[in-house]
Amino acid sequence: MNPESPRPEAPEAKKERVPTREEVLDLIREAAPGEYKETRSREDETGLYLLDLEFAGEKPGETTEYSYIRAGRYKEGGSTTTTISITFYEDSMPVGGKTYADLVDGVWVKQ
Q1: pTM score, two decimals?
Q2: How many C-beta atoms surround the C-beta of residue 67 within 10 A?
Q3: How far is CA 10 from the centre of its chain?
């Protein structure tokens, strides 16, 4: 490479849209209408980055947790994508889970 030739510019990192707390809550309540308990919520200077909501299951001892995490690294963990996941519990033990929706190019894509 010729040291006098200009260096190609690095492509700028694409900034992902940050969903509002209400947008995240609306999406989760659409999937799981009914009463819930907020078990964890974290925000930074950009906005909401973590939210966990717990819903009662149909049988005693069953619960379903919806967890939102914004793409990034945080003291509580991290994610390469902005996503809402679901974890199913029986007697406080996780028994399954899945991704509910991912934020792709600013649009929620349900799985």
Answers
A1: 0.83
A2: 20
A3: 28
